[in-house]
Amino acid sequence: MKQQEQYLQDNVLNQRFGVNQPNQVWLADSTELTYGVNGQYKVRLSGALDLYGRHLIAHKLSETETSKAKVQVFQRAFNFAGDVHPVVHTDRGSACTSGTFNNFLAQHEVTRSMSRPGTPYDNAPMERWWNEFKLRWIDRHAKPVTYKELVALVEEGINYFNQLDRSPARNDLTPAEHWNEAV
């Protein structure tokens, strides 16, 4: 038996994406971003998305997707949200099935949920967030040449999507306004 198999979880969320308050369900995933003159450098952007209002509550850029990076993202999420115990839904990547990550989450008394193998729809709101972030933000700006430029572009984009992007699905509120209205 592989070590990581000890930390596989059922799909508790089971594509039930309707929530009525913050901190009920957090989704997590990462996406690849590139920078450099020819886009030759790659980094991973990891994030934790509160399903309520699609508010990205924490994120981190790192060279690769590691359990350490996931722990840092979720430490930031708990620092932001306080003493909460959401369902945390992830894929089955090695960072999310690691003992380090799962032991950290157990300390916060969360309910774990994992997508079924080969089923990206199980994490559809997070996948959509990354897709919109790339299509509506990253792809509409000049390709960052330096890491510093990439960091600035990512921070500006996350600020835009959390603080400025209004949606009829949230009564024309931004994710932050929608989230703050409920807490």
UniProtKB/TrEMBL annotation:
Which residues belong to any copy of the Integrase catalytic domain? 18-183
Residue ranges crossing the lipid bilayer per the database entry: none
Gene3D superfamilies named among the record's database cross-references? Ribonuclease H-like superfamily/Ribonuclease H (3.30.420.10)
**Matching PANTHER family:** TRANSPOSASE INSF FOR INSERTION SEQUENCE IS3B-RELATED, TRANSPOSASE INSO FOR INSERTION SEQUENCE ELEMENT IS911B-RELATED
Protein name as it appears in the record: Integrase
Q: Which organism is it from?
A: Lactiplantibacillus pentosus (Lactobacillus pentosus)
- State the organism's lineage: Bacteria, Bacillati, Bacillota, Bacilli, Lactobacillales
